[in-house]
Amino acid sequence: MPLQDLVTAEKPIPLFVEKCVEFIEDTGLCTEGLYRVSGNKTDQDNIQKQFDQDHNINLASMEVTVNAVAGALKAFFADLPDPLIPYSLHPELLEAAKIPDKTERFHALKEIVKKFHPVNYDVFRYVITHLNRVSQQNKINLMTADNLSICFWPTLMRPDFENREFLSTTKIHQSVVETFIQQCQFFFYNGEIVETANTVAPPPTSNPGQLVESMVPLQLPPPLQPQLIQPQLQTDPLGII
Q1: How far apart are the first and last CA of the chain?
Q2: Contacts of 138 by beta carbon, 8 Å cutoff, 6+ apart
Q3: Contact 94/172 with Cβ under 8 angstroms?
């Protein structure tokens, strides 16, 4: 079902997405390997099935793991007719990601995000804000913005992995999503650019055939300075904090 059919003006976030994110943030934000460690496939499928039968279902009552819910959330976006990040904007995003100057690069990406369909924009902002919160717990869950982007960019962008030309740009695709996660306050809440030790730089072109999932292992980077982010997250207009 198209994303536009799953939301309303009063409810801009699909209820299934909202329930999954709330469950994850309430019960498993510090789970090691969150979004990278697969959950039980049967449980994952059953979550969506039970929701389809009863939209008021309480995920906590299902006795499923946070990894199963995380998998169900990723599957939701993978099953949409079109990717959350529109195909039409992929070329612009890739070109912007190559801009050497960091500030200029971020502003260029911000202008492109404004071109998203309003429905896509609202949901993308919601998901990226959630992933930013996950990354703030990276000292415990080991999921940095880098690792989260590796797990999520194929789901959000839905690339053609059979296209040999595409395979040479996989690292750039990943860096785009990493930048959004790392700098979500700048992109979506008029915040300042967050200076961190691993602020994303334009990536080198990856070798054809090199799969992103195997490129970067779980790693523990320097702290993300959450004090620069947290005060603004408390005023999140979506009410998900």
Answers
A1: 28
A2: 144, 147, 220, 221, 224
A3: yes
> 151: exposed, middle or buried (C-beta count within 10 Å: 0-12, 13-18, 19+)?
buried
| Distance, CA of 240 to CA of 237 (rounded, Å) | 8
pLDDT digits (tens, 9 = 90+) for 25-75: 999 999 999 999 999 999 999 999 999 999 999 999 999 999 999 999 999
Q: Token pair for residue 196?
A: 């961190």
116: which residues sit within 8 A by CB, 6+ positions away? 85, 86, 89, 124
If you write DSSP's letter for every residue of 92-147 in order, what string do you get? Answer: HHHHHHT-SSHHHHHHHHHHHHTTS-HHHHHHHHHHHHHHHHHHTTHHHH---HHH
CB atoms within 10 A of CB 204: 8
Collapsed DSSP state (helix, strand, coil) of residue 18:
helix
User: What is d(CA 210, CA 196) in angstroms, rounded to the nearest whole number?
Assistant: 27
What does the DSSP 8-state code read for residue 81? S
> For the whole prediction, is pTM greater than 0.90?
no
| Angle of CA points 186, 75, 146, to nearest 5° | 40
Extents of the domains making up the chain? 3-233
**What does residue 235 show for φ and ψ, rounded to 5 degrees?**
-110, 25
Domain 3-233, what architecture?
Orthogonal Bundle (1.10)
> What separation in angstroms does the CA of 37 have from each of 67, 87, 236?
7, 28, 28
Q: Which of 123, 88, 102 is nearest to 3 (CA)?
A: 123
Which amino acid type is present at position 5?
Answer: D
